[in-house]
Structure formats: C-alpha cells, structure tokens
C-alpha cells in the first residue's frame, strides 16, 4: 500500500502505552491487508492503538471519521487526557518519574484500593495509568476479582515514564478521533457501508494456562469469541470491511472458516521462561474485500 503523503519531514505517530498483544511489531504484515479505500475507521479494542497511529502517520485517515473504543475505563481516560491535556499530563509524569522507586510504585498502584480513587482528577488517573504501564512487569494490565490493579513492578533500570514527543504526537493524532468507553458491540451503532473495522480482541488462548485475556474483570473465552463472531457476521452483512486479528487455533479458524484467513508470524514476549519466547503464528481474517 502506498501512502498518499510524502515521507519527507515524516512525523512518526505511535502508541503512548505498551500493550500486551500490541501490533507495532506486526504492522508490516498487517498493512498489506488493510483495504485500499474505505470511508471511516473503527478500532473497537483500541489497546495501544498501533494500527490507528500507523494509518494516521501514513495519511490514510485524512478527512475520515475515526472511532476508538475500549471497555477499560482507565485506558480510555488516558486517551482522552492525552488528546485534551498533554501539557498537564507531561507535568504530572515528570513528577512521578522523579519519585519513582519500588516503594513509590506500590504506593501508586494501591490508589484504586481507596474509596477516594473515583474522586481523583482525570489527569491524576491518566498519569497513574501511564506510570504503572511504563514501570510494571511487561506492560501488563491485569486486575483482580475486585477490580484492583495487581501487576508487580518490572525490572527496568531507566523506564521511559515520560516520553514527551510521543505524547505530543499522539495528542495531535487523536484530535480526529471520537474516543469511547464502550463495548466493541456498540460499533454496530456507528458503522455504514464501506467503513473499515479492525478487531484486535483479547486472543483466544493457545493453551488452557496461557490466557492473558483478563485485562479487565471480564474474561474473553469461547462464549465471548462466539459473540464477537456474531458481530463480525452482522458487519459482513452490511458490506463493511472488517479485519480481525487472533490466535492461530482450531477454535478460531473453525469459527471463521468461510472467510479469508491469512497466517502471519509474531514474536511471543509474554512468557516467564526464556525458552517460551519466539515466533508463533497468528491469523488475520478479512471480510468484504480482497
């Protein structure tokens, strides 16, 4: 796919958070499978938003409406703060960076155990979210049964807690986006013929013990994957372009067996054992376009 803008003076827009299953390392394999022409763009499991930022970098979202969804309210709050208040956010992140230590990490992590957490400002909550994301183990977002964030601190000598350029650039890109704390199912309310929807849900686990799907208090297993497939079919019936990433498993391939499936190679990073990291296959499913 060729970009409609010159690559001279090229500004790189990229995710401002690390995200498990993020697609930055797979963009070279995903971009050739993006429809060459489409109306508006939807990313209903936005996570780190790697494909959104890449499409924006390439000028492929110019004059289009963009909708970014996620049910993770803290993530969506961070997106809105980056969009609206990057200066204030950076100021807070600088202060958190100066105070960073193991003791401070667990103090900040414990904020959500306090009843006053909901009364904190949007900027305070976004700063906490990004600080924890940059300093926790492998950038995981995981909560316990009570909804409390419970990821331990990672082993980083100099974590990049406040990447000012990335935040400013992300803020610029997000000016064109409508950011919604909503279920992916709400995409049905907004889409029309020839729009493009990219689904990047929590992946179906490769093994019963490999699931990192609980990035909020809800799981995303057989029942949830089937519900997503039903939404996919409805979008297919409305002549909407859909691209869907998932794990290369028999369960997923059987669900989408009547559609176009491409296998791609991905790096496995989230594994406690070094010999469990390496190349694995994922799939991309397409609907309504070649």
CATH topology of the largest domain: Rossmann fold
- Structural classification: alpha/beta
**How many beta strands in the DSSP annotation?**
7
The CATH homologous superfamily name of the largest domain equals Vaccinia Virus protein VP39
Q: What is the residue-mean pLDDT, rounded to a whole number?
A: 90
Number of contiguous helices:
9
Report how far the terminal alpha carbons are from each other: 13 Å
Tell me the fraction of residues in β-strands, as a range.
Answer: 5-15%
Q: How do the helices and strands follow one another from N- to C-terminus? A: HEHEHHHHHEEHEHEE
- The share of residues in helices is 25-40%
Using the coordinates above, name the CATH class of the largest domain: Alpha Beta
CATH architecture assignment name of the largest domain:
3-Layer(aba) Sandwich
Apparent shape: globular
Number of domains: 2
Low-confidence stretches: 1-8, 212-217
Cα gyration radius (Å): 19 Å
Largest sheet, order of strands side by side?
Answer: 3-2-1-4-5-7-6
